[in-house]
Amino acid sequence: MSLKSALATFVGKSSYVVLHDILRRGGTSLPGKLATKIDPEVMTTLAEKYDVILITGTNGKTLTTTLTTRVLREQFPDVITNPSGSNMMQGITGTMLTAKVTGKSHRPIALLEVDEANVEEVARQLKPMAFVLTNIFRDQLDRFGEIYTTYDKILKGIRLFPEATVIANADSPIFMRGDLPNPKVYYGFNHLPADGDMKAPHNTDGVLSPTDDTVLHYHFMTFGNQGDYFSVSDDFKRPELDYAVTKINEMTPRYSNFDIDGETYQIEIGGMYNIYNALAAYTVGRFLGVTTQQIHHAFESNAQIFGRQEAVNVNGKEVTIVLIKNPVGANQVIDMMKTDDQPFSLIALLNANYADGIDTSWIWDTDFESLKDSGMQAIATGGERYKDLYVRVKMAGYGEHPVYQDLKQIVKAIDEMPTKRVYIAATYTAMLQLRAQLAQQGFIKTGMGE
Amino acid sequence: MAAEYVLHTAHLYGDLMNTYGDYGNIVAMRFYASQIGVDVDVELISLGDEFDDKKYDFVLFGGGQDYEEQIVAEDLKFKADAIKRYIESDGPLLGVCGGFQLLGHYFLMADGTRVEGISVMDHYTLNQQHSRFIGNVLIKDEVNGNEYRGFENHQGRTFLGEGERPLGKVLQGKGNNGEDGGEGLVYRNVYGTYFHGPIFTRNGNLALHVLQTALERKYPEVNWAEKMADIKPEAF
Ligand SMILES: [Zn+2]
């Protein structure tokens, strides 16, 4: 390590100590800023001793990273990772600066969730040995423009390291673009017979074949643009899967039970998207030599990870809070609720601040209509953009319904729901406000689970 | 039981051009139509499919991503004559963003690539290299005095041509090009706009106007104005 790097590391680490231990603030971005100022190359120096794996994509990064960390820790003594939300360069620098390793392993692993737009910069400095790609859906287009632009940003990072392994969700056709020379590991779903022939529904993005831009057909679809696709104009099709979900045994809002490569696993959270997250974690584990037995063990202890879907008791009601941020994710949440065997109610909350995405038009691509065939007994809307959501739900066929402009009324809203089970689906800042309210009234401990 | 009146809708390239909830326009149309016992069915017309201009009572042509728009532009050439016939026979059509651009002469993508439209109408679209018009828009329809609200998100700058008038005068936001104070277009029964929101969901008065136009064209013997008088338009 050069003197400059050593100094940068020292300054970064000590500012972390001051912020974290003395001022008791979470601050992971300031140490990074200070250290990078002294030595812009400090990250490269720090990362040299790690095997770096970057996880990126639109949805599921955080959960995939958390679950993969658990899986890898079964086998490797030193796996460092970044806290959720710290997935841009500054946050990652902070993570690397303050990481503690036991020194037991000769190559510690840095498993890092990276924001799609930051992949190139992070990769350039950290020189990863593998990239994990989860999916690309439409998300906050006011930020990035379009899904192909998002993927191009990721590709730029991967192209810097043609020897790095690309571990990709093969069910997502966009990842077959770009003709990468890298070694590849593919995961996906093989739970249904490959004999159907269907096209994606009208509001799906990214369904063009990478060979000739015709609309892809699918033998079966899981959700969004994902599934077992093939071209009708040439021989392009989904590649062979290295690791696959081979059977779905049971899906409920509380847990999912499924087979990967013929062995049964269970995760204590609903939603098909979470099975994808688990499959990604499994794949990275197998890629690095973790045994299926160890993966079983890691999955068995997964209940605590899924803080985002914990049930909160509010005056005797079982309230489940879920984050919604784009149509694919929201439709998955809807599908998850539909697997509930108990009657339930839904309170949907919409804000349109920067962190939520300032364009609310995505609510029209969200299939509220499909809840008519479920156990849903009542629906209410609210949040800063309550008018948009109110009309959306009204036009979905639910007519006039309760609307809560002010989240101070949230407990009242919950109380008034006719069922014991209540789901609250909220955009990011609406969720923060909601949790602050529930915390203030003593139903949960902190504003946001850490 | 089948309804007495049915509107057949074509959603042009709905699998490739529906990036910002444009389908909501059909949801709104159906919502109002159902209040007067009219069914609205939807057919997706995509790459390689024929567009039969005699068959439809309303056409939605939504916006897409740059990449998809180039693919659609190639295919659209084969539907151009039928679309022209539909428009010239006063067929109601809503074109949003890319769908609106492609009906004109051409548009330039952010990087300057020129994509040919089908020139069934006389507008054209230039680009902005490093910025987009993003934000809330409020316009006033100078013919009927109605105000329309929406959200715009586009890099294209559209300039209207012969026989086209803007849908409204910009009171807030950028509109077609940020220069001439117009937003969207009206030509016969074609409505073009950069509004997402989508426009019919947030502006019930416009949705009702287009719905009535479509019904009067298909069922001229019925007094639709009277039937629709009690519908309350949503606006937000
Ligand atoms: Zn647009």
Automatic annotation (TrEMBL), chain A:
Pathway(s) of this molecule: Cell wall biogenesis; peptidoglycan biosynthesis
Active site residues per record: D359
Keywords linked to the UniProt accession: ATP-binding, Cell shape, Cell wall biogenesis/degradation, Ligase, Metal-binding, Nucleotide-binding, Peptidoglycan synthesis
Catalytic activity: beta-D-GlcNAc-(1->4)-Mur2Ac(oyl-L-Ala-gamma-D-O-P-Glu-L-Lys-D-Ala-D-Ala)-di-trans,octa-cis-undecaprenyl diphosphate + NH4(+) = beta-D-GlcNAc-(1->4)-Mur2Ac(oyl-L-Ala-D-isoglutaminyl-L-Lys-D-Ala-D-Ala)-di-trans,octa-cis-undecaprenyl diphosphate + phosphate + H(+); beta-D-GlcNAc-(1->4)-Mur2Ac(oyl-L-Ala-gamma-D-Glu-L-Lys-D-Ala-D-Ala)-di-trans,octa-cis-undecaprenyl diphosphate + ATP = beta-D-GlcNAc-(1->4)-Mur2Ac(oyl-L-Ala-gamma-D-O-P-Glu-L-Lys-D-Ala-D-Ala)-di-trans,octa-cis-undecaprenyl diphosphate + ADP; beta-D-GlcNAc-(1->4)-Mur2Ac(oyl-L-Ala-gamma-D-Glu-L-Lys-D-Ala-D-Ala)-di-trans,octa-cis-undecaprenyl diphosphate + L-glutamine + ATP + H2O = beta-D-GlcNAc-(1->4)-Mur2Ac(oyl-L-Ala-D-isoglutaminyl-L-Lys-D-Ala-D-Ala)-di-trans,octa-cis-undecaprenyl diphosphate + L-glutamate + ADP + phosphate + H(+)
GO MF annotations, alphabetized: acid-amino acid ligase activity; ATP binding; carbon-nitrogen ligase activity on lipid II; metal ion binding
Enzyme Commission number: 6.3.5.13
Keyword Transmembrane helix: no
Domain Lipid II isoglutaminyl synthase (glutamine-hydrolyzing) subunit MurT C-terminal: start-end pairs: 323-431
GO biological process annotation, one example: cell wall organization
Domain Mur ligase central residues, every copy: 55-284
Top-tier EC class: ligase
Role of this protein: The lipid II isoglutaminyl synthase complex catalyzes the formation of alpha-D-isoglutamine in the cell wall lipid II stem peptide. The MurT subunit catalyzes the ATP-dependent amidation of D-glutamate residue of lipid II, converting it to an isoglutamine residue.
Oligomeric and partner information: Forms a heterodimer with GatD.
Protein family: Belongs to the MurCDEF family. MurT subfamily.
PANTHER family attached to this UniProt entry: LIPID II ISOGLUTAMINYL SYNTHASE (GLUTAMINE-HYDROLYZING) SUBUNIT MURT, MUR LIGASE FAMILY MEMBER
This protein's name: Lipid II isoglutaminyl synthase (glutamine-hydrolyzing) subunit MurT
Gene name for this UniProt entry: murT
TrEMBL record, chain B:
UniProt keyword terms in alphabetical order: Cell shape, Cell wall biogenesis/degradation, Glutamine amidotransferase, Hydrolase, Ligase, Peptidoglycan synthesis, Transferase
Residues binding substrate, per UniProt: R132
Species assigned in the record: Weissella cibaria
Keyword hit for Signal: no
Record GO biological process: cell wall organization; cobalamin biosynthetic process; peptidoglycan biosynthetic process; regulation of cell shape
Cited function: The lipid II isoglutaminyl synthase complex catalyzes the formation of alpha-D-isoglutamine in the cell wall lipid II stem peptide. The GatD subunit catalyzes the hydrolysis of glutamine to glutamate and ammonia. The resulting ammonia molecule is channeled to the active site of MurT.
UniProt-annotated catalytic positions: C97 (nucleophile), H196
Family label: Belongs to the CobB/CobQ family. GatD subfamily.
HAMAP family: Lipid_II_synth_GatD
Every CobB/CobQ-like glutamine amidotransferase domain range: 10-203
Subunit structure: Forms a heterodimer with MurT.
EC number, as in UniProt: 6.3.5.13, 3.5.1.2
Keyword Nucleotide-binding assigned: no
Gene (UniProt): gatD
Name under which the protein is recorded: Lipid II isoglutaminyl synthase (glutamine-hydrolyzing) subunit GatD
